[in-house]
Amino acid sequence: MKLARIKNGIVSDIIDFGTESIPTWSSNWIDATDLEMGMVDDGHGNYSHPVIPDPSPEMILSAKKYIDNYAGKTRIKYITDAPGQDLTYKQKAEEAEKYVTAVYPSDLTGYPFIQAEINAYGKTKEQAADDILTKRDQWLSVGAQIEEVRLQTKQQIDNAVSNSEIKTICETAVTNFDAI
Known about the structure:
Helix content is about 55%, strand content about 10%. The protein is mainly alpha-helical. It has two domains: about 1-50, no CATH class; about 55-180, no CATH class.
């Protein structure tokens, strides 16, 4: 005879006594003829295997975090990841826009980043401002591609019907990120 011990509504132990006599210590165990380890009581003495959602919430969360991290890894191929660098890029672009809009004034007062480009690279003031804007525009194109892959992938993860589909979606996303 097989007996099962139930802990917190879950079959936690099963012992097959065969033809031996049942020990007295097992008086609170139940008949385990149709039970398996891990089965769950529905509250009415009916036991079944627990339903594990597929895709699991943990898989969805983990996949989205992985995609966010991989998008960050892809961005790093194109930008400098250092404290304050994003603000520097933004300030340089704003300054160059202002400078070009003012039709390249000869006085560089108020344009310290353009002056820095001139000093560092020996560029003309026009080249410095135009190069800053070209680099910004290149980044905007690449950054938008990365963001598109990131957002589409997270949407696909939300719509996935299985953990294996999520894995395939993530693999495809990595290929797409690496192609940028």
